[in-house]
Specification:
alpha/beta, two-stranded antiparallel ribbon, 16% strand, binds iron/sulfur cluster
């Protein structure tokens, strides 16, 4: 019964968002990204948002950020870091933040984690980074592949895998997707194309036609039945790199600052080559593309 009323509230929230976006042409916020900390136990070469000490929030700040976000209209929440499973404040841990957010009225809650700690965040979708095949992931992420799978096996919530695609792992992308799907531990596979400064992207990421080829490969994998999270509309938009950005309905809160879309919003050189697939997905849903709307409704 509780599950049904939750599903109904979720549908109502999306219907009201659609009304604002399509009929009233109002850019109401919907997805709130909370950077809860920046402490991380790993040292991935492409990550610029770890261990700077600038983004640690205490529980009081977390609670007020969540309730202010809810008041502005947000109903979907992504908690990220650093590594959010490391977050503590007084006696509180991440599981308390998830139930606090649910109590405030957030309907879709996800936690982005490196998966190297027990996945203790009941009621949230867990998005766990798996950066390629076992070998590629272990080279990039300190030999943590098996430890992560062990934690995913014990998780009590829905788990998605997320691959950050770079030169370091794109060659074996098909093998990685087959291996991840073969574990039967993940309900879907999402991805980002390495998004960073142009210098970092030209050295380690994919540019121009390389991106197009990798997107085509992902689309083929989806066609073969692998659970790639990518709507037809987002695939086309990413391929043509013509989706509208920054996405006004996304806000990110980090270190006491609120950013529209993400921290790189004022940097067109990064934004123009944005490879965050979920942003492209949301942009397409907000333009009313049916495949992207369906994808959004399925995600929770
Ligand atoms: S790089 Fe630009 S488009 Fe991509 S998430 Fe950040 S602000 Fe949005």
């Amino acid at each position: 019964m509780a599950g049904r009323s939750q599903a109904l509230r979720r549908l109502q929230a999306y219907a009201s968002l659609a009304l604002d976006a399509f009929l009233l042409r109002r850019d109401r916020p919907y997805l709130f990204i909370l950077v809860i900390n920046d402490a991380c136990n790993l040292d991935c070469f492409y990550c610029a948002s770890k261990n700077t000490g600038r983004y640690e929030l205490d529980y009081a700040s977390v609670r007020s950020a969540l309730s202010e976000a809810h008041d502005r209209g947000h109903r979907a929440l992504v908690i990220t870091g650093g590594e959010p499973m490391l977050w503590r404040s007084g006696g509180a841990a991440l599981a308390d933040v998830v139930s606090q957010a649910r109590g405030i009225g957030f309907l879709d809650i996800a936690v982005f984690t490196n998966g190297t700690f027990p996945l203790d965040a009941d009621g949230a979708t867990l998005i766990v980074t798996i950066d390629g095949t076992r070998d590629a992931h272990n080279a990039l992420r300190a030999g943590t592949y098996d430890l992560i799978l062990d934690h995913v096996r014990r998780a009590r919530s829905k788990v998605l895998a997320s691959i950050t695609i770079s030169k370091a792992n794109e060659r074996e992308l098909e093998d990685a997707v087959r291996a991840i799907a073969g574990t039967r531990l993940f309900e879907g596979i999402t991805f980002n194309l390495l998004t960073q400064s142009p210098d970092m992207v030209s050295r380690h990421g994919l540019c121009g036609q390389e991106r197009v080829r990798v997107l085509d490969r992902l689309w083929r994998l989806k066609g073969q039945g692998y659970p790639i999270i990518l709507s037809r509309a987002a695939y086309r938009a990413l391929r043509a790199n013509d989706w509208r950005r920054p996405v006004k309905q996304i806000e990110l809160f980090a270190g006491g600052h609120l950013f529209q879309c993400c921290r790189d919003v004022g940097r067109p050189e990064i934004c123009l080559e944005c490879g965050y697939s979920s942003c492209a997905e949301i942009s397409q849903a907000l333009e009313g593309r049916p495949s992207a709307v369906l994808q959004l409704l399925r995600a929770k």
